[in-house]
Amino acid sequence: MEKEAGRRGGKWRVAGLVLLGLVAFLAFLLARAPADRIYGLAEPYLPGDVGLYGLSGSLWEGRATAVEAGGVRLHGLSWELHAAALLTGGVSLDLAVEDRHLEMQALVEREFDGTLHLTVPRGRLAIPPLQGQTRWRHPAVEGEVFLRELEATLADGGLQRADGGITWRGAAVTVAQRAELGDLEVTLETPEGGGTRGQVTELGEGPLEADGTVSLSPAGRWQVDARVAARDPEGVLGRSLAMMAEESGQGGYRLRYSGRITLPSF
Fold this sequence. Notes:
The protein has about 270 residues and is α+β, with helices and mostly antiparallel strands. The relative contact order is 0.07. It is built from 5 helices and 14 strands. It has a 14-stranded antiparallel β-sheet with strand order 1-2-3-4-5-6-7-8-9-10-11-12-14-13. This is Type II secretion system protein N. Keywords: Cell inner membrane, Cell membrane, Membrane, Protein transport, Transmembrane, Transport. It is found in: Cell inner membrane.
Protein backbone atom coordinates (compact mmCIF):
# COMPACT_ATOMS: atom_id res chain seq x y z
CA MET A 1 0.00 0.00 0.00
CA GLU A 2 2.76 2.43 0.93
CA LYS A 3 4.68 1.65 -2.27
CA GLU A 4 1.53 2.17 -4.35
CA ALA A 5 0.81 5.50 -2.64
CA GLY A 6 4.40 6.52 -3.20
CA ARG A 7 4.13 5.68 -6.90
CA ARG A 8 0.92 7.71 -7.16
CA GLY A 9 2.55 10.67 -5.44
CA GLY A 10 5.52 10.42 -7.76
CA LYS A 11 3.24 10.40 -10.81
CA TRP A 12 1.43 13.52 -9.59
CA ARG A 13 4.73 15.29 -8.99
CA VAL A 14 5.92 14.39 -12.48
CA ALA A 15 2.60 15.52 -13.97
CA GLY A 16 2.85 18.79 -12.07
CA LEU A 17 6.37 19.42 -13.33
CA VAL A 18 5.32 18.62 -16.90
CA LEU A 19 2.36 21.01 -16.63
CA LEU A 20 4.56 23.74 -15.17
CA GLY A 21 7.07 23.23 -17.96
CA LEU A 22 4.30 23.42 -20.57
CA VAL A 23 2.95 26.65 -19.10
CA ALA A 24 6.45 28.13 -19.02
CA PHE A 25 7.04 27.06 -22.64
CA LEU A 26 3.77 28.63 -23.80
CA ALA A 27 4.59 31.82 -21.90
CA PHE A 28 8.02 31.84 -23.56
CA LEU A 29 6.46 31.47 -27.04
CA LEU A 30 3.95 34.23 -26.32
CA ALA A 31 6.63 36.56 -25.01
CA ARG A 32 8.72 35.99 -28.14
CA ALA A 33 5.82 36.95 -30.42
CA PRO A 34 6.18 40.27 -32.30
CA ALA A 35 4.97 43.17 -30.18
CA ASP A 36 2.86 44.70 -32.96
CA ARG A 37 1.04 41.41 -33.55
CA ILE A 38 0.26 40.95 -29.85
CA TYR A 39 -0.92 44.55 -29.63
CA GLY A 40 -3.21 44.01 -32.62
CA LEU A 41 -4.89 41.13 -30.78
CA ALA A 42 -5.15 43.03 -27.48
CA GLU A 43 -6.16 46.45 -28.85
CA PRO A 44 -9.95 45.77 -28.93
CA TYR A 45 -9.85 45.07 -25.18
CA LEU A 46 -7.87 48.19 -24.19
CA PRO A 47 -9.47 51.46 -23.01
CA GLY A 48 -10.32 53.76 -25.87
CA ASP A 49 -7.88 56.47 -24.74
CA VAL A 50 -4.86 54.13 -24.68
CA GLY A 51 -2.69 53.61 -27.76
CA LEU A 52 0.80 52.38 -28.70
CA TYR A 53 2.48 53.46 -31.93
CA GLY A 54 5.60 52.44 -33.83
CA LEU A 55 6.00 49.09 -32.10
CA SER A 56 9.13 47.03 -32.63
CA GLY A 57 10.73 44.01 -30.99
CA SER A 58 8.73 41.42 -29.08
CA LEU A 59 6.45 41.21 -26.08
CA TRP A 60 9.56 40.02 -24.22
CA GLU A 61 11.72 43.00 -25.14
CA GLY A 62 10.38 45.81 -27.26
CA ARG A 63 9.90 49.48 -27.90
CA ALA A 64 7.15 51.93 -28.86
CA THR A 65 8.02 55.22 -30.50
CA ALA A 66 4.94 56.76 -28.84
CA VAL A 67 2.34 55.90 -26.22
CA GLU A 68 -0.89 57.77 -25.50
CA ALA A 69 -3.04 57.49 -22.39
CA GLY A 70 -5.66 59.88 -21.05
CA GLY A 71 -4.82 62.42 -23.73
CA VAL A 72 -1.13 62.56 -22.76
CA ARG A 73 1.31 61.50 -25.49
CA LEU A 74 4.86 60.40 -24.67
CA HIS A 75 7.71 59.15 -26.82
CA GLY A 76 10.46 56.58 -26.39
CA LEU A 77 8.87 53.78 -24.33
CA SER A 78 10.84 50.54 -23.97
CA TRP A 79 10.39 47.41 -21.84
CA GLU A 80 12.00 44.09 -20.96
CA LEU A 81 10.20 41.20 -19.25
CA HIS A 82 11.81 38.99 -16.59
CA ALA A 83 11.09 35.30 -17.15
CA ALA A 84 11.30 34.13 -13.53
CA ALA A 85 8.14 36.00 -12.46
CA LEU A 86 6.03 34.21 -15.09
CA LEU A 87 6.62 30.86 -13.37
CA THR A 88 4.77 32.08 -10.25
CA GLY A 89 1.93 33.77 -12.13
CA GLY A 90 3.34 37.26 -11.75
CA VAL A 91 4.78 39.86 -14.08
CA SER A 92 8.08 41.70 -13.72
CA LEU A 93 9.46 44.14 -16.25
CA ASP A 94 11.87 47.01 -16.66
CA LEU A 95 10.29 50.13 -18.13
CA ALA A 96 12.00 53.19 -19.53
CA VAL A 97 10.61 56.42 -20.97
CA GLU A 98 12.88 58.83 -22.84
CA ASP A 99 10.67 61.77 -23.69
CA ARG A 100 11.78 65.40 -23.58
CA HIS A 101 9.07 66.03 -20.96
CA LEU A 102 9.40 62.76 -19.02
CA GLU A 103 12.50 60.68 -18.36
CA MET A 104 12.12 57.66 -16.12
CA GLN A 105 13.50 54.21 -15.44
CA ALA A 106 11.36 51.84 -13.39
CA LEU A 107 11.01 48.25 -12.29
CA VAL A 108 7.36 47.15 -12.17
CA GLU A 109 6.46 43.89 -10.43
CA ARG A 110 2.95 42.47 -10.11
CA GLU A 111 2.39 39.43 -7.94
CA PHE A 112 -0.24 36.76 -8.59
CA ASP A 113 -2.54 38.25 -5.91
CA GLY A 114 -2.48 41.70 -7.55
CA THR A 115 0.12 43.31 -5.28
CA LEU A 116 2.10 45.87 -7.27
CA HIS A 117 5.68 46.90 -6.49
CA LEU A 118 7.21 49.95 -8.17
CA THR A 119 10.87 50.96 -8.01
CA VAL A 120 12.05 54.19 -9.67
CA PRO A 121 15.79 54.85 -9.28
CA ARG A 122 15.45 58.19 -11.02
CA GLY A 123 12.90 60.24 -12.91
CA ARG A 124 12.24 63.73 -14.27
CA LEU A 125 8.87 65.24 -15.12
CA ALA A 126 8.29 68.63 -16.75
CA ILE A 127 4.85 69.70 -15.52
CA PRO A 128 3.57 72.46 -17.90
CA PRO A 129 3.72 70.59 -21.25
CA LEU A 130 2.13 67.48 -19.76
CA GLN A 131 -0.55 69.39 -17.86
CA GLY A 132 -1.39 71.18 -21.10
CA GLN A 133 -2.37 67.83 -22.65
CA THR A 134 -4.87 67.02 -19.90
CA ARG A 135 -8.26 68.40 -18.87
CA TRP A 136 -6.72 69.58 -15.61
CA ARG A 137 -5.65 73.07 -16.69
CA HIS A 138 -6.37 75.11 -13.54
CA PRO A 139 -4.57 76.03 -11.48
CA ALA A 140 -1.65 76.19 -13.89
CA VAL A 141 1.41 74.53 -12.35
CA GLU A 142 5.03 75.14 -13.35
CA GLY A 143 8.36 73.51 -12.65
CA GLU A 144 10.08 70.15 -12.92
CA VAL A 145 9.66 67.19 -10.58
CA PHE A 146 12.61 64.91 -9.90
CA LEU A 147 12.24 61.43 -8.38
CA ARG A 148 15.04 59.54 -6.68
CA GLU A 149 15.19 56.07 -5.15
CA LEU A 150 11.41 55.87 -5.02
CA GLU A 151 9.92 52.54 -3.89
CA ALA A 152 6.20 51.90 -3.46
CA THR A 153 3.85 48.96 -2.89
CA LEU A 154 0.14 49.03 -3.72
CA ALA A 155 -2.30 46.30 -2.65
CA ASP A 156 -5.98 45.96 -1.80
CA GLY A 157 -6.74 49.35 -3.34
CA GLY A 158 -4.31 51.22 -1.07
CA LEU A 159 -0.72 52.38 -0.77
CA GLN A 160 0.97 49.97 1.63
CA ARG A 161 4.37 51.66 1.67
CA ALA A 162 6.39 54.37 -0.09
CA ASP A 163 9.93 55.58 0.45
CA GLY A 164 12.18 57.92 -1.49
CA GLY A 165 12.64 61.54 -2.44
CA ILE A 166 10.70 64.02 -4.59
CA THR A 167 12.07 67.44 -5.52
CA TRP A 168 9.97 70.14 -7.19
CA ARG A 169 12.26 72.74 -8.77
CA GLY A 170 11.12 76.09 -10.11
CA ALA A 171 7.73 75.57 -8.50
CA ALA A 172 5.03 78.10 -9.34
CA VAL A 173 1.23 78.13 -9.33
CA THR A 174 -1.13 80.49 -11.15
CA VAL A 175 -4.68 80.95 -9.87
CA ALA A 176 -5.61 84.60 -10.33
CA GLN A 177 -1.95 85.66 -10.36
CA ARG A 178 1.29 83.75 -10.74
CA ALA A 179 2.99 82.92 -7.44
CA GLU A 180 6.53 81.55 -7.35
CA LEU A 181 7.25 78.95 -4.66
CA GLY A 182 10.93 78.22 -5.30
CA ASP A 183 12.37 74.72 -4.85
CA LEU A 184 10.60 72.26 -2.56
CA GLU A 185 11.50 68.77 -1.39
CA VAL A 186 9.47 65.88 0.03
CA THR A 187 11.23 62.97 1.75
CA LEU A 188 8.98 59.91 1.97
CA GLU A 189 9.20 57.11 4.49
CA THR A 190 6.92 54.28 5.60
CA PRO A 191 5.56 54.73 9.14
CA GLU A 192 4.49 51.95 11.47
CA GLY A 193 1.18 50.64 10.20
CA GLY A 194 1.98 51.22 6.53
CA GLY A 195 1.15 53.94 4.07
CA THR A 196 3.59 56.80 3.71
CA ARG A 197 4.60 60.03 5.44
CA GLY A 198 6.53 62.82 3.79
CA GLN A 199 8.52 65.67 5.29
CA VAL A 200 8.14 68.87 3.24
CA THR A 201 10.88 71.52 3.27
CA GLU A 202 12.08 74.32 1.04
CA LEU A 203 15.52 74.27 -0.56
CA GLY A 204 17.62 77.39 -0.29
CA GLU A 205 16.31 80.91 0.21
CA GLY A 206 13.29 80.78 -2.08
CA PRO A 207 10.07 82.83 -1.95
CA LEU A 208 8.35 80.28 0.30
CA GLU A 209 9.36 79.01 3.72
CA ALA A 210 7.82 75.58 4.30
CA ASP A 211 7.98 72.98 7.03
CA GLY A 212 5.35 70.28 7.33
CA THR A 213 4.17 66.76 6.64
CA VAL A 214 1.98 64.98 4.14
CA SER A 215 0.65 61.49 4.81
CA LEU A 216 -1.42 58.80 3.12
CA SER A 217 -2.72 55.74 4.95
CA PRO A 218 -3.31 52.29 3.39
CA ALA A 219 -7.04 52.99 3.70
CA GLY A 220 -6.69 56.08 1.49
CA ARG A 221 -6.88 58.82 4.13
CA TRP A 222 -4.57 61.71 3.29
CA GLN A 223 -3.55 64.70 5.39
CA VAL A 224 -1.46 67.84 4.91
CA ASP A 225 -0.21 69.80 7.91
CA ALA A 226 2.38 72.48 7.21
CA ARG A 227 3.60 75.85 8.40
CA VAL A 228 4.36 78.20 5.53
CA ALA A 229 5.43 81.82 5.19
CA ALA A 230 6.24 84.17 2.34
CA ARG A 231 9.60 85.92 2.51
CA ASP A 232 7.86 88.91 0.96
CA PRO A 233 4.55 89.27 2.86
CA GLU A 234 3.39 92.06 0.52
CA GLY A 235 4.01 90.08 -2.68
CA VAL A 236 1.57 87.87 -4.59
CA LEU A 237 2.47 84.81 -2.54
CA GLY A 238 2.16 86.62 0.79
CA ARG A 239 -1.26 88.04 -0.06
CA SER A 240 -2.47 84.65 -1.32
CA LEU A 241 -1.43 82.89 1.88
CA ALA A 242 -3.19 85.53 3.96
CA MET A 243 -6.45 84.80 2.14
CA MET A 244 -6.31 80.99 2.10
CA ALA A 245 -4.69 80.00 5.40
CA GLU A 246 -4.97 80.69 9.10
CA GLU A 247 -2.19 82.47 10.95
CA SER A 248 0.21 80.29 12.89
CA GLY A 249 1.16 81.09 16.46
CA GLN A 250 4.80 80.54 15.46
CA GLY A 251 4.64 83.08 12.64
CA GLY A 252 3.50 82.58 9.08
CA TYR A 253 0.46 80.49 8.25
CA ARG A 254 -0.72 76.97 8.84
CA LEU A 255 -2.13 74.79 6.07
CA ARG A 256 -4.27 71.86 7.17
CA TYR A 257 -6.17 69.72 4.72
CA SER A 258 -7.43 66.14 4.78
CA GLY A 259 -9.52 63.82 2.68
CA ARG A 260 -9.77 60.36 1.24
CA ILE A 261 -8.82 58.85 -2.11
CA THR A 262 -9.28 55.42 -3.64
CA LEU A 263 -6.36 54.05 -5.61
CA PRO A 264 -6.99 51.70 -8.55
CA SER A 265 -6.47 47.97 -8.11
CA PHE A 266 -4.10 46.14 -10.41
